[in-house]
Batch of 2 targets.
Target 1
Amino acid sequence: MSTRPAPPLAGYGIRFARPAESGSVAELLARAFADDPVMAWLIPAADRERGIARYFRLAQRQQRPRAGAVRVAATGGGRLLAAALWSGPGRWKPSLVRESAALPRYAGIFGLRGMQRAGEVQHTMHEAHPQLPHWYLPSVGTERGLQGMGVGSALLAQQLAACDRLGQPAYLESSNVTNLPFYEKLGFRVTAEIRLPDGGPTFWPMWRDPDRTGGRTTRQGPSQG
């Protein structure tokens, strides 16, 4: 399966996000995740988009120590069309020091009830996370009105092509069942279906083996831990 689709929109490219764009990246992802089931479970509707934007500002701070962690599809004029956060092999989990330092900010975003739920989300996702070294995609979003036009595929294809060249797998969790076909077209496959506790939503871990044979790779999947 090819991971190099031709971009259907002219006049944009894929690049690393600049530090000054962190606010714009957060706002774009907030719009993209406004109807996400997990975000809806964590953040009250009255302030959801603003809360999600604050979350993604913090998520970028956690990501940026990793080289090339925040990538965007952007026009030559600087308009952001899509954004993705990546973590390289062995670097998906923030250090205990960074997590502890971020706790007050997370509490300000989620509140008491949301923090309890966020802890459940983190614990559940960490328990399901594969042990085999891989590239991890915690978040990707496309600007409203541009979904289905190939921008998100083009953004992810850059790193997935590098995974293929280097023989490295990739992993993500989808929190929206309607997005599964999008990821499957890029070579990911569902490895489990996990429902969050206390009536929470479902998410789907997805794994992608590197494509060494032009789409004929046998996909064996990761060990879970």
Note: The longest strand covers residues 80-87.
Target 2
Amino acid sequence: MVNVLIIGATQGTGRELAAAYLRDGANVVVTGREAERAETVAAELTVEVAETAATVAGHPPAVANGDGPPRQGVITGLALDLSRPETVAAALAPVGRVDRLVLVGMVRDRNTLAGFDITTASQLAVTKVVGYTAVIAALAERLAPNAAVLLFGGGAKDYPYPGSTTLTAVNAAVTGMVRTLSIELAPVRVNAIHPGPIGDSPFWQSRPELADTLAQFRSKTLTGELGRMADIVDACRFLLENRLANGIDLPVDGGHP
């Protein structure tokens, strides 16, 4: 049984990736800043995945409520706050062997020099650089020899915009982390994915006032398309499951001139 841990999986792509592994029969742990939220998402995914499986198999919905064959995988929720890296090791104490580790969690920061907010910039830097590394350090002895680690960066690494200075720098730091961690953790594989804007993510869907901004991002891609969460999940699965994928920083953004 594959054990998957996804840090920051209570919404968006992290949640969709958790659902994909649960459908495959993996044991999945999802984390969020608050235990209640993480546990709620785990319960929701348990029902959603079971109902989908029941529908595909042609069973009535009762199968999703425990009246059919037992599910192969189990999903649980766990509280973990990447912005407080000193608490990470204790938060991960209940976690056993890990075969796939994904670090998705982040905080958003659009911070121009004219109104530079040191607090939010520091929180972003700590969350992704120190927090991600703290998770991997805490779990290093629990990573299976054939495990894979996936870090989330972002398109701002290569395509900055006004207000992205901290985000661009932090996502570029993810590239450095991949280089060092893939050597230090070998034979465990370490990769990073750098998505562009994801059109159907909750962040963009809940902000109709940003529709013009999203349209501008779309117009700058060579494909004229924005990514979907399903596209990013597919790319994640490649980096996590292909045994020769190692030390890779993969942009998934439709391409740019």
Note: The helical segments are 12-23, 35-57, 88-91, 118-139, 165-184, 202-205, 211-219, 229-241.
